[in-house]
Amino acid sequence: MIKRFLALTLLTGLLITRCSKKEGDASNGAQTEQTEGMISPFTAEMAETSVIYEVNVRQFSPEGTFEAVTKEISNIKKLGVKILWIMPIHPIGEENRKEGLGSYYSIKDYRGINPEFGNAEDFKKLVDEAHKNGMYVILDWVANHTAWDHPWVKQHPDWYEQDKNGKMHFPYDWTDVVALNFENKEMRKQMIADMKYWLDDFKIDGFRCDMAHEVPTDFWEEAKPKLASDREIFMLGETENPDLLVNAFDAAYGWEIHHIMNDIAKGKKNVSAIDAYMDSIPKKWQADDYKLLFTSNHDENSWAGTEYERMGDAVETFAALTYTLPGIPMIYNGQEEDFSRRLKFFVKDSIDRNPNAKMRGVYEKLGELKVTNEAFNGAKKAASYERLKTSDDKSILAFKRKKNTTEAYFVANLTKSEKEVTVPINGIYKNFMNNEDVPFDATTKLKLKPWEYLILVQKK
Asked: What residues contact 218, with CB distance under 8 A and at least 6 apart?
Protein backbone atom coordinates (compact mmCIF):
# COMPACT_ATOMS: atom_id res chain seq x y z
CA MET A 1 0.00 0.00 0.00
CA ILE A 2 1.00 3.64 -0.46
CA LYS A 3 1.82 4.14 3.21
CA ARG A 4 4.47 1.43 3.09
CA PHE A 5 6.39 3.43 0.48
CA LEU A 6 6.25 6.90 2.04
CA ALA A 7 9.85 6.83 3.22
CA LEU A 8 11.01 5.93 -0.28
CA THR A 9 8.75 8.61 -1.75
CA LEU A 10 10.21 11.31 0.49
CA LEU A 11 13.73 10.33 -0.49
CA THR A 12 12.80 10.28 -4.17
CA GLY A 13 11.11 13.65 -3.84
CA LEU A 14 14.34 15.19 -2.49
CA LEU A 15 16.18 13.99 -5.57
CA ILE A 16 13.71 15.47 -8.02
CA THR A 17 14.71 19.11 -8.35
CA ARG A 18 13.11 19.91 -11.68
CA CYS A 19 9.53 19.63 -10.37
CA SER A 20 7.58 22.62 -9.10
CA LYS A 21 4.15 22.91 -7.52
CA LYS A 22 1.73 25.80 -7.50
CA GLU A 23 -1.96 26.22 -6.85
CA GLY A 24 -4.27 26.61 -9.81
CA ASP A 25 -7.19 29.01 -9.93
CA ALA A 26 -10.52 28.21 -8.31
CA SER A 27 -12.07 26.88 -11.50
CA ASN A 28 -9.37 24.25 -11.84
CA GLY A 29 -8.99 23.45 -8.16
CA ALA A 30 -5.56 23.10 -6.60
CA GLN A 31 -3.90 21.40 -9.54
CA THR A 32 -0.26 20.32 -9.42
CA GLU A 33 1.73 21.83 -12.30
CA GLN A 34 4.96 20.23 -13.44
CA THR A 35 7.79 21.54 -15.59
CA GLU A 36 9.26 19.83 -18.65
CA GLY A 37 6.98 16.82 -18.38
CA MET A 38 8.23 15.89 -14.92
CA ILE A 39 5.78 14.82 -12.24
CA SER A 40 6.44 14.15 -8.59
CA PRO A 41 5.95 10.61 -7.24
CA PHE A 42 2.42 9.65 -6.28
CA THR A 43 1.99 9.80 -2.50
CA ALA A 44 -0.76 9.12 -0.01
CA GLU A 45 -1.35 12.86 0.37
CA MET A 46 -2.06 13.17 -3.36
CA ALA A 47 -4.49 10.28 -3.21
CA GLU A 48 -6.42 12.12 -0.52
CA THR A 49 -7.45 14.81 -3.02
CA SER A 50 -7.66 12.74 -6.20
CA VAL A 51 -10.43 12.56 -8.77
CA ILE A 52 -10.19 9.72 -11.31
CA TYR A 53 -11.36 10.05 -14.91
CA GLU A 54 -11.96 6.81 -16.83
CA VAL A 55 -11.13 7.03 -20.54
CA ASN A 56 -12.70 4.62 -23.02
CA VAL A 57 -10.42 5.50 -25.95
CA ARG A 58 -12.60 3.95 -28.65
CA GLN A 59 -15.74 5.77 -27.55
CA PHE A 60 -14.17 8.98 -26.21
CA SER A 61 -14.31 10.72 -29.58
CA PRO A 62 -15.43 10.14 -33.19
CA GLU A 63 -11.77 9.45 -34.02
CA GLY A 64 -11.35 6.97 -31.17
CA THR A 65 -7.61 7.66 -30.90
CA PHE A 66 -4.95 8.54 -28.34
CA GLU A 67 -4.45 11.84 -30.17
CA ALA A 68 -8.09 12.79 -29.62
CA VAL A 69 -7.73 12.09 -25.88
CA THR A 70 -4.51 14.10 -25.70
CA LYS A 71 -6.25 17.15 -27.19
CA GLU A 72 -8.88 17.04 -24.42
CA ILE A 73 -6.55 16.69 -21.45
CA SER A 74 -6.63 20.40 -20.63
CA ASN A 75 -10.45 20.20 -20.44
CA ILE A 76 -10.30 17.06 -18.31
CA LYS A 77 -7.96 18.92 -15.97
CA LYS A 78 -10.68 21.53 -15.36
CA LEU A 79 -12.74 18.80 -13.68
CA GLY A 80 -10.12 18.59 -10.92
CA VAL A 81 -8.85 15.25 -12.26
CA LYS A 82 -5.54 13.96 -10.93
CA ILE A 83 -5.61 10.40 -12.28
CA LEU A 84 -6.42 9.25 -15.82
CA TRP A 85 -7.49 5.62 -15.99
CA ILE A 86 -7.03 4.42 -19.56
CA MET A 87 -9.07 1.33 -20.45
CA PRO A 88 -7.09 -1.50 -22.13
CA ILE A 89 -5.09 -0.30 -25.12
CA HIS A 90 -3.74 -3.65 -26.30
CA PRO A 91 -4.51 -5.51 -29.55
CA ILE A 92 -7.82 -7.36 -29.27
CA GLY A 93 -8.03 -11.08 -29.96
CA GLU A 94 -9.60 -12.16 -33.24
CA GLU A 95 -10.29 -15.79 -32.38
CA ASN A 96 -13.78 -16.11 -30.85
CA ARG A 97 -14.08 -12.31 -30.99
CA LYS A 98 -17.38 -10.84 -29.85
CA GLU A 99 -19.17 -8.72 -32.46
CA GLY A 100 -17.34 -6.26 -34.69
CA LEU A 101 -14.32 -4.82 -32.88
CA GLY A 102 -14.34 -7.11 -29.87
CA SER A 103 -13.80 -6.58 -26.16
CA TYR A 104 -10.95 -4.42 -24.88
CA TYR A 105 -10.50 -7.09 -22.20
CA SER A 106 -9.56 -9.82 -24.67
CA ILE A 107 -5.81 -9.19 -24.77
CA LYS A 108 -3.81 -10.55 -27.72
CA ASP A 109 -0.45 -9.02 -26.76
CA TYR A 110 0.37 -7.49 -23.37
CA ARG A 111 3.13 -5.33 -24.88
CA GLY A 112 1.27 -4.35 -28.02
CA ILE A 113 -0.95 -1.38 -28.87
CA ASN A 114 -4.27 -1.61 -30.66
CA PRO A 115 -3.66 0.13 -34.03
CA GLU A 116 -7.26 1.32 -33.83
CA PHE A 117 -6.03 3.82 -31.20
CA GLY A 118 -2.68 4.85 -32.68
CA ASN A 119 0.90 3.80 -32.03
CA ALA A 120 3.43 3.79 -29.21
CA GLU A 121 4.52 7.37 -29.85
CA ASP A 122 0.92 8.54 -29.73
CA PHE A 123 0.44 6.89 -26.36
CA LYS A 124 3.67 8.36 -25.01
CA LYS A 125 2.47 11.81 -26.06
CA LEU A 126 -0.77 11.21 -24.17
CA VAL A 127 1.12 10.25 -21.01
CA ASP A 128 3.50 13.20 -21.37
CA GLU A 129 0.63 15.66 -21.82
CA ALA A 130 -1.14 14.26 -18.77
CA HIS A 131 2.04 14.65 -16.72
CA LYS A 132 2.49 18.23 -17.91
CA ASN A 133 -1.02 18.92 -16.65
CA GLY A 134 -0.35 17.46 -13.22
CA MET A 135 -2.16 14.16 -13.88
CA TYR A 136 -1.06 10.59 -13.32
CA VAL A 137 -1.86 7.81 -15.77
CA ILE A 138 -2.91 4.30 -14.78
CA LEU A 139 -3.35 1.60 -17.39
CA ASP A 140 -6.09 -1.02 -17.26
CA TRP A 141 -4.43 -4.42 -16.74
CA VAL A 142 -6.17 -7.72 -17.46
CA ALA A 143 -4.29 -10.41 -15.54
CA ASN A 144 -6.99 -13.06 -15.21
CA HIS A 145 -7.10 -14.17 -18.84
CA THR A 146 -5.89 -13.54 -22.40
CA ALA A 147 -7.36 -13.84 -25.86
CA TRP A 148 -7.37 -17.30 -27.43
CA ASP A 149 -4.85 -16.13 -30.03
CA HIS A 150 -2.36 -14.66 -27.55
CA PRO A 151 1.07 -16.22 -28.38
CA TRP A 152 1.24 -17.83 -24.94
CA VAL A 153 -1.61 -20.20 -25.84
CA LYS A 154 0.57 -22.11 -28.31
CA GLN A 155 3.98 -21.33 -26.86
CA HIS A 156 3.15 -22.07 -23.22
CA PRO A 157 -0.09 -24.04 -22.90
CA ASP A 158 0.87 -24.90 -19.30
CA TRP A 159 0.46 -21.19 -18.49
CA TYR A 160 -3.30 -21.71 -18.79
CA GLU A 161 -5.83 -23.56 -16.70
CA GLN A 162 -6.65 -27.00 -18.13
CA ASP A 163 -9.12 -29.73 -17.28
CA LYS A 164 -8.11 -33.36 -16.78
CA ASN A 165 -8.13 -33.83 -20.56
CA GLY A 166 -5.75 -30.94 -21.11
CA LYS A 167 -8.44 -28.67 -22.49
CA MET A 168 -8.25 -24.93 -21.77
CA HIS A 169 -11.39 -23.10 -20.73
CA PHE A 170 -12.90 -19.63 -20.50
CA PRO A 171 -14.13 -18.03 -17.23
CA TYR A 172 -17.85 -17.35 -16.75
CA ASP A 173 -19.51 -16.82 -20.15
CA TRP A 174 -16.54 -14.89 -21.55
CA THR A 175 -16.07 -17.08 -24.60
CA ASP A 176 -13.54 -14.72 -26.20
CA VAL A 177 -10.87 -15.30 -23.52
CA VAL A 178 -9.01 -18.17 -21.86
CA ALA A 179 -8.14 -18.41 -18.15
CA LEU A 180 -4.51 -18.17 -16.99
CA ASN A 181 -2.89 -20.58 -14.53
CA PHE A 182 -1.37 -18.66 -11.63
CA GLU A 183 0.21 -21.77 -10.18
CA ASN A 184 2.77 -21.46 -12.97
CA LYS A 185 5.71 -19.40 -11.68
CA GLU A 186 7.11 -18.69 -15.15
CA MET A 187 3.82 -17.17 -16.25
CA ARG A 188 3.79 -14.97 -13.15
CA LYS A 189 7.33 -13.83 -13.87
CA GLN A 190 6.47 -12.88 -17.45
CA MET A 191 3.25 -11.15 -16.41
CA ILE A 192 5.17 -8.92 -13.99
CA ALA A 193 7.80 -8.22 -16.66
CA ASP A 194 5.09 -7.15 -19.10
CA MET A 195 3.55 -4.82 -16.52
CA LYS A 196 6.96 -3.35 -15.73
CA TYR A 197 7.48 -2.67 -19.44
CA TRP A 198 4.74 -0.02 -19.38
CA LEU A 199 6.13 1.59 -16.25
CA ASP A 200 9.66 1.72 -17.64
CA ASP A 201 9.11 2.51 -21.32
CA PHE A 202 5.94 4.61 -21.20
CA LYS A 203 6.33 6.15 -17.73
CA ILE A 204 2.81 5.34 -16.61
CA ASP A 205 2.12 5.67 -12.89
CA GLY A 206 0.28 2.48 -12.00
CA PHE A 207 -2.54 0.15 -12.93
CA ARG A 208 -6.26 -0.42 -12.63
CA CYS A 209 -6.41 -4.19 -12.34
CA ASP A 210 -9.42 -5.93 -13.88
CA MET A 211 -11.15 -8.62 -11.81
CA ALA A 212 -8.36 -8.37 -9.24
CA HIS A 213 -10.10 -10.76 -6.82
CA GLU A 214 -10.08 -13.52 -9.47
CA VAL A 215 -6.28 -13.53 -9.36
CA PRO A 216 -4.54 -15.05 -6.31
CA THR A 217 -3.75 -12.43 -3.68
CA ASP A 218 -0.18 -13.64 -3.37
CA PHE A 219 0.44 -12.78 -7.03
CA TRP A 220 -0.42 -9.12 -6.42
CA GLU A 221 1.64 -9.15 -3.22
CA GLU A 222 4.56 -10.51 -5.25
CA ALA A 223 4.03 -8.07 -8.10
CA LYS A 224 3.59 -4.78 -6.19
CA PRO A 225 7.10 -4.42 -4.72
CA LYS A 226 8.73 -5.64 -7.94
CA LEU A 227 6.78 -3.09 -9.96
CA ALA A 228 7.27 -0.27 -7.49
CA SER A 229 10.99 -0.96 -6.80
CA ASP A 230 12.49 2.55 -6.96
CA ARG A 231 9.26 4.41 -7.73
CA GLU A 232 5.85 5.14 -6.24
CA ILE A 233 2.93 3.60 -8.13
CA PHE A 234 -0.83 3.67 -7.65
CA MET A 235 -2.74 0.38 -7.73
CA LEU A 236 -6.53 0.34 -8.12
CA GLY A 237 -8.14 -3.07 -7.87
CA GLU A 238 -11.52 -4.02 -9.27
CA THR A 239 -12.40 -5.81 -6.06
CA GLU A 240 -14.14 -5.44 -2.73
CA ASN A 241 -11.84 -7.91 -0.98
CA PRO A 242 -10.15 -6.03 1.90
CA ASP A 243 -7.28 -8.53 1.97
CA LEU A 244 -6.04 -7.19 -1.35
CA LEU A 245 -5.44 -3.77 0.20
CA VAL A 246 -3.16 -5.02 2.96
CA ASN A 247 0.00 -5.44 0.85
CA ALA A 248 -1.00 -5.05 -2.80
CA PHE A 249 -3.56 -2.38 -3.68
CA ASP A 250 -4.10 1.21 -2.65
CA ALA A 251 -7.77 1.50 -3.62
CA ALA A 252 -10.71 -0.85 -4.14
CA TYR A 253 -14.14 -0.54 -5.72
CA GLY A 254 -17.14 0.81 -3.85
CA TRP A 255 -19.62 -1.53 -5.50
CA GLU A 256 -21.72 -1.90 -2.37
CA ILE A 257 -22.40 1.80 -1.89
CA HIS A 258 -22.93 2.16 -5.64
CA HIS A 259 -25.76 -0.37 -5.58
CA ILE A 260 -27.19 1.20 -2.43
CA MET A 261 -27.39 4.54 -4.24
CA ASN A 262 -29.18 2.88 -7.18
CA ASP A 263 -31.68 1.24 -4.83
CA ILE A 264 -32.39 4.46 -2.92
CA ALA A 265 -32.98 6.29 -6.20
CA LYS A 266 -35.52 3.61 -7.15
CA GLY A 267 -37.23 3.75 -3.76
CA LYS A 268 -36.16 0.21 -2.83
CA LYS A 269 -34.03 1.35 0.14
CA ASN A 270 -33.69 4.41 2.34
CA VAL A 271 -30.87 6.24 4.09
CA SER A 272 -30.62 3.50 6.72
CA ALA A 273 -28.80 1.41 4.11
CA ILE A 274 -26.06 4.05 3.85
CA ASP A 275 -25.80 4.17 7.64
CA ALA A 276 -25.37 0.40 7.82
CA TYR A 277 -22.73 0.54 5.09
CA MET A 278 -20.73 3.29 6.81
CA ASP A 279 -20.93 1.44 10.14
CA SER A 280 -19.52 -1.69 8.49
CA ILE A 281 -16.42 -0.03 7.04
CA PRO A 282 -14.24 -0.01 10.20
CA LYS A 283 -14.99 -3.70 10.69
CA LYS A 284 -13.73 -4.67 7.21
CA TRP A 285 -11.29 -2.03 6.01
CA GLN A 286 -8.15 -0.34 7.26
CA ALA A 287 -8.52 3.34 8.11
CA ASP A 288 -6.29 4.43 5.22
CA ASP A 289 -7.88 2.25 2.53
CA TYR A 290 -9.39 4.14 -0.38
CA LYS A 291 -12.73 3.22 -1.96
CA LEU A 292 -13.51 4.17 -5.57
CA LEU A 293 -16.89 5.93 -5.60
CA PHE A 294 -18.89 6.34 -8.81
CA THR A 295 -22.34 6.71 -10.31
CA SER A 296 -21.25 5.08 -13.58
CA ASN A 297 -18.38 3.30 -15.30
CA HIS A 298 -17.90 1.35 -18.53
CA ASP A 299 -19.67 -1.75 -17.21
CA GLU A 300 -22.58 0.08 -15.61
CA ASN A 301 -23.16 2.32 -18.61
CA SER A 302 -23.20 -0.45 -21.20
CA TRP A 303 -24.91 -3.23 -19.26
CA ALA A 304 -26.87 -1.83 -16.28
CA GLY A 305 -27.83 1.47 -17.89
CA THR A 306 -26.80 5.09 -17.70
CA GLU A 307 -26.91 6.93 -14.39
CA TYR A 308 -30.06 8.66 -15.68
CA GLU A 309 -31.76 5.29 -16.20
CA ARG A 310 -30.75 4.04 -12.76
CA MET A 311 -30.96 7.22 -10.70
CA GLY A 312 -33.31 9.55 -12.53
CA ASP A 313 -33.58 12.97 -10.86
CA ALA A 314 -31.08 11.91 -8.17
CA VAL A 315 -28.06 11.87 -10.52
CA GLU A 316 -26.48 15.11 -9.33
CA THR A 317 -27.16 14.36 -5.67
CA PHE A 318 -25.42 11.01 -5.78
CA ALA A 319 -22.57 12.46 -7.82
CA ALA A 320 -22.07 14.96 -5.00
CA LEU A 321 -22.18 12.13 -2.47
CA THR A 322 -19.29 10.36 -4.21
CA TYR A 323 -17.18 13.48 -3.62
CA THR A 324 -18.16 14.02 0.00
CA LEU A 325 -18.03 10.50 1.46
CA PRO A 326 -14.56 9.13 2.32
CA GLY A 327 -13.17 7.79 -0.94
CA ILE A 328 -11.88 8.70 -4.40
CA PRO A 329 -14.59 9.90 -6.81
CA MET A 330 -14.58 8.83 -10.44
CA ILE A 331 -16.03 10.24 -13.66
CA TYR A 332 -16.62 7.96 -16.65
CA ASN A 333 -16.03 9.79 -19.92
CA GLY A 334 -19.23 11.44 -21.10
CA GLN A 335 -20.76 11.99 -17.68
CA GLU A 336 -19.56 15.59 -17.74
CA GLU A 337 -21.39 15.99 -21.08
CA ASP A 338 -24.82 14.99 -19.69
CA PHE A 339 -24.46 11.93 -21.94
CA SER A 340 -27.59 9.85 -21.37
CA ARG A 341 -27.23 6.91 -23.74
CA ARG A 342 -25.74 3.46 -23.24
CA LEU A 343 -22.50 3.07 -25.17
CA LYS A 344 -22.22 -0.08 -27.21
CA PHE A 345 -19.38 -2.18 -25.90
CA PHE A 346 -18.03 -4.17 -28.85
CA VAL A 347 -18.42 -1.69 -31.70
CA LYS A 348 -17.64 1.97 -32.40
CA ASP A 349 -20.13 4.28 -30.67
CA SER A 350 -18.70 7.60 -29.47
CA ILE A 351 -20.04 9.97 -26.83
CA ASP A 352 -21.61 13.29 -27.83
CA ARG A 353 -20.10 16.62 -26.74
CA ASN A 354 -22.54 19.07 -25.17
CA PRO A 355 -21.38 22.70 -24.82
CA ASN A 356 -24.35 23.42 -22.55
CA ALA A 357 -23.91 20.41 -20.27
CA LYS A 358 -25.09 21.02 -16.73
CA MET A 359 -22.96 18.29 -15.19
CA ARG A 360 -19.70 19.74 -16.51
CA GLY A 361 -20.18 22.74 -14.24
CA VAL A 362 -21.22 20.46 -11.38
CA TYR A 363 -18.13 18.25 -11.77
CA GLU A 364 -15.84 21.27 -12.05
CA LYS A 365 -17.23 22.65 -8.79
CA LEU A 366 -17.05 19.27 -7.04
CA GLY A 367 -13.49 18.84 -8.31
CA GLU A 368 -12.59 22.17 -6.77
CA LEU A 369 -14.11 21.01 -3.48
CA LYS A 370 -12.17 17.75 -3.51
CA VAL A 371 -8.76 19.25 -4.15
CA THR A 372 -9.05 22.36 -1.97
CA ASN A 373 -11.07 21.35 1.11
CA GLU A 374 -9.17 18.96 3.35
CA ALA A 375 -12.30 17.98 5.27
CA PHE A 376 -13.26 15.92 2.23
CA ASN A 377 -9.98 14.00 2.01
CA GLY A 378 -10.31 10.47 0.71
CA ALA A 379 -9.46 8.18 3.62
CA LYS A 380 -11.46 8.08 6.84
CA LYS A 381 -8.24 8.12 8.84
CA ALA A 382 -7.31 11.48 7.36
CA ALA A 383 -10.69 13.20 7.59
CA SER A 384 -13.30 11.96 10.04
CA TYR A 385 -16.88 11.04 9.15
CA GLU A 386 -19.61 11.74 11.71
CA ARG A 387 -23.25 10.94 11.04
CA LEU A 388 -25.61 13.66 12.29
CA LYS A 389 -28.98 12.76 13.75
CA THR A 390 -31.85 14.59 12.04
CA SER A 391 -35.60 14.63 12.61
CA ASP A 392 -36.00 12.12 9.74
CA ASP A 393 -32.96 9.87 9.47
CA LYS A 394 -34.55 7.50 6.98
CA SER A 395 -35.03 10.29 4.45
CA ILE A 396 -32.24 12.73 5.24
CA LEU A 397 -28.53 11.94 5.10
CA ALA A 398 -26.50 14.45 7.11
CA PHE A 399 -22.88 14.06 8.12
CA LYS A 400 -19.88 16.06 9.20
CA ARG A 401 -16.38 15.74 7.77
CA LYS A 402 -13.43 17.20 9.62
CA LYS A 403 -9.66 17.34 9.34
CA ASN A 404 -7.45 19.45 11.57
CA THR A 405 -9.44 22.68 12.05
CA THR A 406 -11.38 22.37 8.81
CA GLU A 407 -14.94 21.10 9.05
CA ALA A 408 -17.74 20.77 6.53
CA TYR A 409 -21.19 19.22 6.23
CA PHE A 410 -23.27 17.32 3.69
CA VAL A 411 -27.06 17.34 3.99
CA ALA A 412 -29.34 15.70 1.43
CA ASN A 413 -32.96 14.71 0.97
CA LEU A 414 -32.68 11.24 -0.54
CA THR A 415 -36.34 10.90 -1.45
CA LYS A 416 -38.66 12.04 -4.23
CA SER A 417 -40.80 14.05 -1.76
CA GLU A 418 -40.22 17.47 -0.21
CA LYS A 419 -39.07 17.29 3.42
CA GLU A 420 -38.94 19.74 6.32
CA VAL A 421 -36.42 18.70 8.95
CA THR A 422 -34.13 19.87 11.70
CA VAL A 423 -30.39 19.17 11.52
CA PRO A 424 -27.96 19.65 14.46
CA ILE A 425 -25.76 22.27 12.80
CA ASN A 426 -25.10 25.64 14.42
CA GLY A 427 -23.62 28.72 12.79
CA ILE A 428 -23.52 30.37 9.38
CA TYR A 429 -21.99 28.30 6.62
CA LYS A 430 -21.49 28.78 2.90
CA ASN A 431 -23.31 26.52 0.46
CA PHE A 432 -20.28 25.55 -1.61
CA MET A 433 -22.20 24.89 -4.81
CA ASN A 434 -23.77 28.38 -5.08
CA ASN A 435 -21.76 30.45 -2.53
CA GLU A 436 -24.89 31.44 -0.59
CA ASP A 437 -24.84 31.82 3.17
CA VAL A 438 -26.94 29.31 5.11
CA PRO A 439 -27.67 30.06 8.81
CA PHE A 440 -28.36 27.19 11.21
CA ASP A 441 -29.34 26.69 14.80
CA ALA A 442 -30.92 23.83 16.76
CA THR A 443 -34.45 24.94 15.88
CA THR A 444 -33.95 25.71 12.19
CA LYS A 445 -36.58 24.06 10.00
CA LEU A 446 -34.83 23.17 6.79
CA LYS A 447 -37.01 22.69 3.72
CA LEU A 448 -35.46 20.39 1.15
CA LYS A 449 -36.90 19.68 -2.26
CA PRO A 450 -36.78 16.11 -3.65
CA TRP A 451 -33.12 15.08 -4.00
CA GLU A 452 -31.90 18.50 -2.89
CA TYR A 453 -28.47 18.57 -1.25
CA LEU A 454 -26.25 21.08 0.53
CA ILE A 455 -22.48 21.06 0.86
CA LEU A 456 -21.74 23.43 3.72
CA VAL A 457 -18.23 24.80 4.25
CA GLN A 458 -16.78 27.31 6.69
CA LYS A 459 -16.95 30.97 5.78
CA LYS A 460 -13.56 32.57 5.28
From this structure: none
